[in-house]
Amino acid sequence: MDHFQIENSFLYWTIIIVSTLLMRLFFSLLRANEYKYYVPNRLAKHPEMENKIAFFSSINFAGRFRKIFCGFSKVEPYPDSWYNTAIGTFELYSFPILMSQNKFEYIGAWLAFKLIGQWKMWNENRNAANRIIIATALQLMLSYFFLMPCVFV
Q: Distance of alpha carbon 16 from its chain centroid, rounded?
């Protein structure tokens, strides 16, 4: 891991974009599946959001998946507008470069900043917290894989 050289930037970006889209596909499937286990909370603080979640849960799996993957649905209770995917793309681009330069403190600081901002939500939605942890682990594993000599050098 003493150097990282991108000889073919088109190939590098193609692999990053494909990896990002595959991760979005995987996590959209997870999110769509979680709604089938949704139990309405009759004592909810926000009944209008509870109703929106209940309605979205009643949509069939394929419909939920499509709306979640697209990211801009007004029906989905928590649309992400692809922000998470953009952040993931940035991480997949920069983490291998930082790893090759032994700048792990930058990666650690970024992950701390990213994860601490979600702390309150983790207490309220454990599934979302687990998805963030899994996504972060996958980002780090893919980044390390990208450092292998057979991938880009």
A: 14
Contact between residue 101 and residue 93 where contact means Cβ atoms under 8 Å apart: no
Residue type, 88: G
Q: Where are the domains of the chain?
A: 9-152
DSSP three-state, residue 74: coil
- The answer to pTM > 0.85 is no
Give residue 121's Cα distance to chain centre: 15
Express each pLDDT in 107-133 by its tens digit.
999 999 988 877 777 777 788 888 888
**3-class state of residue 43 by DSSP:** coil
Write the pLDDT tens digit of every residue in 41-82: 665 677 888 889 889 999 999 999 999 999 999 999 989 999
C-alpha to C-alpha distance for 7 and 130, rounded to whole angstroms: 36
Question: CA 127 → CA 31, 133, 152, distances in Å?
Answer: 8, 10, 35
For 19, 105, 114, 137, the CA distances from 144, given in Å and listed in that order, are 13, 15, 19, 11
Phi, psi of 101 (to 5 degrees): -95, 10
